[in-house]
Amino acid sequence: MIQCKTSKEIGGMGHSLKRKEDARFIQGKGRYVDDVKLPGMLYMDIVRSPYAYAKIKNINIDEAMKVPGVVAVVTGRDLEKYNLHWMPTLMSDTQMVLPTDTVMYQAQEVAAVIATSKYAARDGREAVRVEYEPMKPVIDPYKSLDPDAPVLRTDKEGKKDNHIWNWKVGDKQKTDDVFAKAEVVVKEQMHIPRIHVASIETCGCVADYDKVNNHLTMYMTTQAPHAIRTVIALVAGHVGLTEEKIRVISPDIGGGFGGKVPVYPGYVIAIAVSFLVGKPVKWIEDRSENLQADSFARDYHITAEMAGTKDGKILATRFKVLADHGYTDASANPSKFPTGMFSIATGSYDYDATYMECDAVYTNKPPGGVAYRCSFRVTEAVHAIERITDRFALEIGKDPAELRLQNFIKKEDFPWKSPTGWIYDSGDYHKGLLKAMDTVDYHQLRAEQAEKRKRGELMGIGLSTFTEVVGAGPSKDFDILGIKMFDSAEIRVHPTGKAIARFGTKSQGQGHETTYAQIIAEELGIPAENIQIEEGDTDTAPYGLGTYASRSTPTAGAAAAVASRKLRDKARKIAAYLLEVSEDDLEWEPGKFFVKGAPEKSKTIQEIVFASYTNHPPGMEAGFEATHYYDPPNLTFPSGAYICVVDIDKETGAIHVRRFVAIDDCGNIINPMIVQGQVHGGLTQGIAPAMYEELIYDEAGNILNGTFMDYLVPTAVESPKWETGHTVTPSPHHPIGAKGVGESPTVGAPPAIANAIVDALSPYGITHLDIPITPFKVWKALKEKGAI
Ligand code: MCN
Ligand code: CUN
Questions:
Q1: 156 part of a folded domain
Q2: Are 250 and 345 in the same domain?
Q3: What spacing in Å lies between the alpha carbon of 296 and ligand 2's midpoint?
Q4: CA 524, CA 274: separation in Å to the nearest integer?
Q5: Same domain, 277 and 391
Q6: Tens of pLDDT along 161-199?
Q7: Which of ligand 1's atoms lies nearest the C-alpha of 514?
């Protein structure tokens, strides 16, 4: 009898396989877009606006054209001739590629300089003279709705104000009634700051238009190659660039975090120029451009309210949001959900009355809307519910852990329908929180805190017990620009039993080359090391919507499992033929089929695959290939219980995160080491907005922290020792019971930190502080309350 290797030996699911891709990353062998060098390639640099709102009176390119190496300067007027000066955003709004008359935010693209080297392009950029007539910008989103505020989007016919859309969900009447009668009502006004993903690699592309074949190859840093191909075809189809003539290649990506989902004007300009001059054009942003002009995240002003009983039962919540979208709504949301999945804001708690409303407005700031490890606005939702839950606990003097345990949805109540209509697939919130409490020794910490309070020392303990919602999504509700949000896997097994599998997603560092191979290994018994994973080339990969919103595992991961199972069904037929038994007489164990009761009669998957090319049953299609487009029946609902402990220096406001325990539940885990890595990175990106990061603008719309000197990205020095762990509540509808995890820590961490800091300061009457909570903010609050 042939002894099959164990799941661990073949690198199946649940094992901490070392990441296959790291061999090339750590040896400098990654191939990023800036590594693409093509014969005759030109370089592009972009002139950007110093003003937030100004009329362009004149663009003088004479001096720039004299710079040695400069071959062209492209303006909005040039693009206008080809009707390429506007493009759609992913939220079906519109956006200038280059302006013809007016600039709408600081750092907006104004003109592009094309040259034979990147240095000449930069020199040319400095020599372009633009005459502006500055106007008074709208910066404060609250003022943008004032009747006397200038209407910014004059390009939209008949537009009379700066309002973009109004969105509401929940039962207003029912909720208002509960609030009116409630024993306890708490309310806080919160701002979730505008922040920016600072991936190591900035955005960029090489547009390579081949005039002879009318074919565009677009190398670019995109998280969603297929969707981008479709968008390019929509924008440039009228000049003959139809979808079959476009190949998007997303090579290795040095971090995306959401910032590489949108379509930036730079991409479109590079394509236009390559199309017009017939040469490849490279555009790579510098760090400041990336920070100042690329898609921002968050910027939600939220009024959160909670109603409940004196003994701690949550009865209702109300959320009113003002969303500052900047110049255009360029969010990357599913079409039907302009606020993304914000409506998960009822959280992990069992109550049935909620009402949420959001108004989105235009201002003179860069566009964007969801990027930065956010799960489509779940960061904002979780911050609101977790902060207001702590506020409620504080109001009634109840321990916030006890209050949560009292209100959690019980594990036997899943699937659970939330008052905003989500069907939570599964969860065990009590188990997660109890594990986190046990890990930190919660009761001991509370005792220590009580002692310290007697001495006037500031120690705080903060909780966040969040529900995530990822895996967009079921096609009945989820699309982007009309394209349904399924995802795909195509597996080809070669005659010798080694495979290549391609996906519609695109890793930016998440480790897909390893984890997808593990899923297929587990399902088919082919060792993971013999399964090559490929993503990011639209000519070879099946159509998919890409990697964001922690959707790869819920969608493409599921597709990998289902495609593998299709192959296993075929393998069973071949094995039956080879062993001359009926299919029903066969049993599967990873790596082989054997005859029931006669285990010595077996065929390994390698033998079966070989037979599929050499000796397949008559009438059966040869070869060993399967494709699956997976349309999930529901989203997956990961969860987490985080506890943060802080010590605060009263005199300086300095905050020291003493401990941070994160217990995540992402269902069945494919690779524990990778999940832990995801959680470590995500937590660091959670502490970022909680304590450091915020894009700040003055009244004139100048960004005040447009470089890394002032925009504080946390490093290893600022990061506490993350203590991670997990509980496992498999998703009942996902083929391998997995839920996404990539964004959970960033979603869950900020309120744990904010709650810990406010907990430390609460004896002095402080009930809320907006993130990022800096030492100065703490010191100022203490001073105002007379504590120091
Ligand atoms: N995983 C697992 N078991 C699970 C769930 C996930 O082993 N039950 C593994 C997956 O196989 C995958 C990784 O964890 O290798 C993340 O999976 P998933 O949660 O499905 O998320 P995605 O792969 O779709 O990644 C997207 C997510 C997002 S939206 C942002 S933003 C983010 C994040 O991933 N950007 C990242 N993590 C990042 N990590 C790196 N290094 N770089 C980025 O840009
Ligand atoms: Cu919102 S950041 Mo991730 O979805 O790419």
A1: no
A2: no
A3: 11
A4: 45
A5: no
A6: 999 999 999 999 999 999 999 999 999 999 999 999 999
A7: 15
